[in-house]
Amino acid sequence: GILKFFFFFSMFAVEASVSRDELLRAGQKEVLALAARGAPVQEVIASLVRAAQAVTAEGARAAVFIFDPEAACLRFLAAHGMSTAYTSAVDRFAIGPHQPSCGKAAFTGNEVIVGDVAQDEQWQPYLALAIEHDIRACWSFPLKSPAGDMLGTFALYHRSPRKPDAAEYEEVKFCANIAALVSG
C-alpha cells in the first residue's frame, strides 16, 4: 500500500525538472518519515499539502477536507497558505451536485477543475468569500479509499484564473492519492 505510493512518488520525481524534483523528493521524504513514525494523520496531511503547494504555480495554496458521513459534509483537516478565516468559513462544507469544487468533487467522486471561479455557476453563492480570500481558481480532487468510499477532497487554490498543465495535474492527483491512502 503506502510503500508502493512512495516508490511511485520517488520515480515520478526523477522525471520532473531539477528544482521540482528537489521539492518533490523533500516532500516525499518528510511525508514518509512522518507516516513511518506513526505521526497523527493531520500532521502527515499538513506535510503533504505543503509539498503540493511547493511544486505548483507560485501563490498556490492547498487544503484537505475529510468527509463526515454523519453530517454529510466536508470537514477541514489541513491547509497550507489558507487563512484561518477561510478554513473556518468552509468547515462543514455541503456536498452536492451544485456545490463549488470540493462539494461537487465529493459528491461525484471526480476531479473538479475550475479555472476561473468568477465564471463558474456553482461558485456564485461563494464568490464574495473567494474574492475576499484571493481565490481565482480551484482544483479539487476526491479522496477515495481502495474500495471506492469517499474520504474527502484535496484542493489547490490559485490567485489567478488558470487550469493545471499536464505535469501539475499528475502531481496534484498523485498527492491526492497519497492523502487518500494516509486518511483511509
Q: What's the quick description here?
A:
The chain is of the alpha+beta class and 184 residues long.
Notable features of this structure?
disordered N terminus; alpha+beta; six-stranded antiparallel beta sheet
Give a structural overview.
The protein is of the alpha+beta class and 184 residues long. The protein has seven helices and six strands. It has helices at 2-15, 18-36, 41-55, 84-90, 101-108, 127-132, 166-183, and strands at 61-68, 73-80, 93-94, 112-114, 137-144, 150-158. It has a six-stranded antiparallel beta sheet, sandwiched between helices. Helix 1 runs antiparallel to helix 2 and helix 1 (2-15) runs antiparallel to helix 7 (166-183). The longest helix is centred in the first third of the chain and has 19 residues, at 18-36.
How much helix is in the residues? 40-55%
* Strand order in space, largest sheet: 3-2-1-6-5-4
**Largest sheet properties:** 6 strands, antiparallel
What gross morphology would you assign? globular
The span between the termini is 11 Å
Measured by DSSP, the beta-strand proportion falls in: 15-25%
Number of strands: 6
SSE order in H/E notation?
Answer: HHHEEHEHEHEEH
Report the radius of gyration as a whole number of Å. Answer: 15 Å
What's the number of helices?
Answer: 7
Low-confidence stretches: 1-18
| Overall average pLDDT | 83
**Assembly form of the protein:** single chain
| Secondary structure category | alpha+beta
Describe the SSE topology:
Blueprint (H helix, E strand, L loop, with lengths): L1 H14 L2 H19 L4 H15 L5 E8 L4 E8 L3 H7 L2 E2 L6 H8 L3 E3 L12 H6 L4 E8 L5 E9 L7 H18 L1
Helix pairs in contact: 1-2, 1-7, 2-3, 3-7
